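Next up, a chain.

===
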Amino acid sequence: MDAKTELRPDFVYNILKKEILECIFQPDERLVEKALCERYSVSRTPVREALNRLELEGLVVARPHAGFRVTPLTIESFRHHSELRHCLEPEIAAKAAEKASSQERLELIREAELSFDHQRPETYREYMVRNREFHLGLAKATRNPRLLAIMSGILDQHQQPAFLGVIGKSSSQTSSAEHSEIAQAVAEGRSHDARRLMSEHISSGEIRIIRGLRMAGFPEFEQGSDLLPKTAAS
């Protein structure tokens, strides 16, 4: 990594945020500044700046006399993200049904199918990317850049539990079927159905992920930094 890389103020922020959201750094894991400097080949200043920005976004927390840690993942915090999606995405789907172009309608139908092979971990990452692209495709179709920006941030954090592998094999099949129904409603301009189907889709995913979080031992509420589930610590 050359000196020019260090001069880019967003470099450490962007890569650290990505690694937190993809659970390379796991929930409640301690973030050691010296180790981060060595990892990214940068000085302490951009690392500290990145950590402060991520704290404002709620992705890391500063512990008294213990530096920074990745924000613990709890069932309550996941529910909060689901509530945000319930507030926004059904209306986004309805607006997409009203405003999407013919090309966007076709693309949504093509992007609806999701799958991954549990024996090939790299396909799971592709599944996550495609899932995000489908939902952002609906937001793009609303022609509202503010909605798109907000949904991008919400989806980033909402997908975090899935990177821990807490969803089952049948999840991709269920999501594909639900996406296809939403895409078809949008393609046919059925805004009322698109709204209803999206609401049902969010609820369905919430139930599956919360079940997985409970099976993995994640707490309902944050009660302290010593509650890191065994699966997340491995």
